[in-house]
């Protein structure tokens, strides 16, 4: 086979696509205009989790006094933002270096430049060394999404971060208003409050995490409030101005909030203007490329898509699976992507995770809910982390598992067990046969199923 495949974008969708296609024998060019690893490795999943881990360890260290004589801990930790940042940058550098090695080993040609379509079988790539033409049999568009600052926050020059630029700040603000109570906003509220920043979290919908299960939002709201985060829901920012060097945010109810800095965490947008997809017969909107087949990831005869640009699920692991499926299909296989069982995790305190249908999404179906609470779990009590629950939804008649939500320490790890069970089409009775080690928080799954 001398199949030429061009992959545009080296994020968690693009680089696994390139690797898969190369391993299947194709001649692969991977084009990236910024850094290998995309948003996920450079300004997303990995840096945010590195920062959250540092904040979590500081929280634990601050809690040590109660295990020490006279309630005095050996040292009282003062967070160093620059050291926390340095660790985060080192982790990112290690991972992006790993991708470069993987590409070299797989003989993928990596072009550092910005790609644009010339037609349905040719790309022009603008590199620092000049322009290059890349002809292809198949292209996989994996160009991701971008952070953006919506109006009226754009009226606050120098005072607003978006969900990419927040990673580059040189010092922590004293007060931070976070606009958007989705996963990114809630993770930053957790992080910043651990680091001593006074946080105001503003969400337009009546509750935090409007796209996730209500029970998860309740557990998180309680924890954030305990940390001193001021949560304002059901309010939108209607206007913004600078007052004495601070951001003044006027809310729908007429009240005004003041903050040193603002984080716009209201989602991401797709902008393919520079890629000129129209020259290859593609159309797009702010959510992504139009006409992507959600199972095969096929868009036109010569073009596939993967990752955020498909608009299917804006998560790294969903993009990775899509990249692999798109590459396999370019290479003549019949691979399919299933968007139904993509787990979703939020790395707050406690962690939150879900997979499949939530109770609200299952409304109208004849379902049974199986729920257990952390309060009765031995391991959770030994760790003073007993706020949370596991809820599993099954079809009432057949017992077939439909979905699960978890609020618990390491929920992001626990959800894999339930993802596997859902993917395998298991029933409650089948999952009840599984023995979980004791004492673990995973036992909550067995506890829930017993109800
Ligand atoms: C703060 C934050 C935290 C997050 N945390 C998580 C998390 O914990 N778990 C999770 O699953 N997801 C998380 N996400 C989402 C995750 O980062 C994205 O879903 C994922 O990065 C999408 O992967 P992708 O490959 O589709 O696109 P991207 O990662 O955006 O990569 C696309 C790449 O394409 C390149 N590109 C674009 N246009 C061109 C062009 N014309 N020519 C050449 N190159 C081009 C870009 O430079 C970019 O590197 C987070 C996102 C943010 C912002």
List keywords for this structure.
FAD/NAD(P)-binding domain; Enolase-like, domain 1; alpha/beta; binds flavin-adenine dinucleotide; 8-stranded mixed beta sheet; globular; 451 residues; 5-stranded parallel beta sheet
Class based on secondary structure composition and strand pairing = alpha/beta
Number of domains: 3
CATH topology of the largest domain: FAD/NAD(P)-binding domain
Q: What's the CATH architecture name of the largest domain?
A: 3-Layer(bba) Sandwich
Give the averaged pLDDT, no decimals: 96
- Tell me how many strands there are: 25
- What is the end-to-end distance? 55 Å
Strand line-up of the largest beta sheet: 5-4-3-2-1-6-20-19
Just give the CATH class of the largest domain. Alpha Beta
Q: How is the biggest beta sheet arranged?
A: 8 strands, mixed
Low-confidence stretches: none
Helix content: 25-40%
Ligands in the model, by name, code or SMILES, are: flavin-adenine dinucleotide
Number of separate helices: 11
Shape from CA axes? globular
Q: Using only CA atoms, what is the Rg?
A: 23 Å
- The named CATH superfamily of the largest domain: FAD/NAD(P)-binding domain
Q: β content, as a range?
A: 25-35%
